[in-house]
Amino acid sequence: MSELDFGIFKDFWNGHPNHLPLMGLNNDNNQPAEWNLNKSLERLDLICDNNDQELIINGIHKLLNNQDWRPHLVAILVSFKLTPTEQIKLIPELWTRLEKGSWISPQILSVLSIIDNEFELKAKEILNNGFKVNYSPMGMAEHHSARGPEGSKEASEKVTSSINSLLENQNDDFGWKGKLIKLIENKKFKTNTKHNTV
Fold first, then answer.
1. Which one-letter DSSP state was computed for residue 12?
2. From CA 99, how far away is CA 82, in angstroms rounded?
3. Is 185 exposed, middle or buried (0-12, 13-18, 19+ CB in 10 A)?
4. What is the mean pLDDT of the chain?
């Protein structure tokens, strides 16, 4: 994916699927030596430690503006590298990304449940009024690669289902959100800010 314009994150992939370990946040002995969760997190740390916040923010926008779910995964983790003020500014863009569609909507919602103080209010509104993913036009094969096999209806249902799960299982240590919080608490993933949930 390095040929795409992702700003300072263009070299994150370096020929390896470095986004994949971020999907489950699992670190086990079965992962290849060349690419694994530790290496993916280290690459994010290295990129962010060697660039100023303006470049990091610019890179996040580029990642989120892409139709592909893989850059979205990188963007939501990098959001924890921002100062609280900049992180708050990013919240509307993450909700907009959900409306435009992303295969990793559960992970985006997990991050929003941590950084958005109004998450519970917005989540309950969605459960009461519904949610609609509005995909932009794209060829079938390209859609499948970038967005997964889901159509708009299934993607919308996935958002409401994920919200239900997050509201009902707020202390789930084994879900993606719980694993992320543990990585931050154990200083395996460096952040620029602290939250009540973390």
1. S
2. 23
3. exposed
4. 92
> Could you count the other beta carbons within 10 Å of the beta carbon of residue 22?
20
Q: Residue 171 burial by CB count (10 A; 0-12/13-18/19+): exposed, middle or buried? A: exposed
The pTM of the full predicted model, rounded to 2 decimals, is: 0.94
Q: How many CA atoms lie within 13 Å of 185's alpha carbon, on the beta-carbon side?
A: 11
Which residue type is seen at 29? N
pLDDT tens per residue across span 123-138: 999 999 999 999 999 9
The three-point CA angle 119-124-125 to 5° equals: 100
Name the helix (H) or strand (E) containing 21: helix 20-24
What does the H/E/C string look like for 44-70?
A: HHHHHHCCCHHHHHHHHHHHHHCCCHH
| Torsion angle of the four alpha carbons 27, 195, 94, 6, in this order, in degrees rounded to the nearest 10 | -60
Inter-residue long-range contacts of 15-21, CB under 8 Å, 24+ positions, other chains counted: 18/43, 19/70, 19/71, 19/73, 19/74
